[in-house]
Amino acid sequence: MKTTAKQKGMTLVEILVAASISLIVVTVGLSFVIQTLKSYQYETGKLLINRDIRKFTMQMIDDATYANNFQIYDQYSNLSRASGYTLFASGTADPTTTTYKGYTTDLTVTLPANPVSTSTPGTAKVDSGLTGDVLVLIYYVNGDNTRIYQLVIYYREIVTPAGGTTGTNSTTVSPRTAILKRLVCPIFDDGTLTTTNPQKAGIMRLLPYITASMANATSIFPYVDGQANDVPASPSVNRSNKMFYNLNDTSILVRGRIYENYTAQRIVKSTYNFTVTPRG
């Protein structure tokens, strides 16, 4: 007579317990993978920021070392030449071309509106102890300060509107972050030493008309929050979160915070602070 052994299966409780344990194991594993990916993303972002900062610092030090002078302006709209200005004969409006000659008249020097206004930004350069978002490095021909052969311009594409409640004066970071760009402007030389040579026109005629998203400007950082501040001229003027600080009219203090993989969480950020001095 043949006997058959009884086969014992898993009860419902045992199945539920096993499923729960498996779910916990999977959840812990996924959490570990997510945290690892986040850590990898963060460290990659830090490496990218450190690389970009080193590259930017070396570029600006190199530019400043060979510059003879500099000027700082509040914002790129200060250099607007939208109307009332005529280009030098046969010159081009694109400041990055070798045929750029500037304008026939000086850019009128006006003080900015109080409080700050985009309609009346003012064209005056900022004095010692003040800050701005446009740095113009000036290069003379063989030390001759009557002849300018090149301008290198660093600027943030950001404008602070009237009242100063947004833009660089915003209380939150996102509205005051902007792209930082570098623009190289070679000045045309007609081979003469007369006053008609564009290189002898002077800085206020050679300053280019900078517009948002100029095609030939080089992007340095996609998201930059200026960190340089100065003492307001009055309570109605708040000059905060700018990029460049005029240090005694001899040096430029560069202060900013850059973001990598900029999102609502601002994955990675790093603040830099260094000083450059044109050779004079």
Explain how this protein is built:
This protein has one domain. It is 21% helix and 25% strand. It has helices at residues 12-65, 203-206; strands at 69-73, 131-132, 134-141, 144-156, 178-186, 218-226, 244-247, 251-260, 268-276. Strands 1, 2, 3, 4, 5, 6, 7, 8 and 9 form a 9-stranded antiparallel beta sheet that branches. The model has no long low-confidence stretch (mean pLDDT 82).
Question: Could you give a quick summary of the protein structure above?
Answer:
This protein is an alpha+beta fold and 280 residues long. Helices cover 21% and strands 25% of the residues.
Strand and helix map with partners:
Blueprint: H1 12-65, E1 69-73, E2 131-132, E3 134-141, E4 144-156, E5 178-186, H2 203-206, E6 218-226, E7 244-247, E8 251-260, E9 268-276
Antiparallel strand pairs: 1-3, 2-7, 3-4, 4-5, 5-6, 6-8, 7-8, 8-9
Number of beta-strand segments: 9
Largest sheet: 9 strands, antiparallel
Share of residues in strands: 15-25%
Distance between the termini: 113 Å
Indicate the overall shape: elongated
Give the helix level as a range of percent: 10-25%
What low-confidence regions span 5 or more consecutive residues with pLDDT below 50? none
> Rounded to an integer, what's the Rg over CA atoms?
28 Å
What is the total number of structural domains? Answer: 1
Q: What structural category characterises the helix and strand content?
A: alpha+beta
Helices and strands, in order, run as: HEEEEEHEEEE
Q: If you average the pLDDT, what whole number results?
A: 82
Quaternary organisation of the protein chains:
single chain
Tally of individual helices: 2
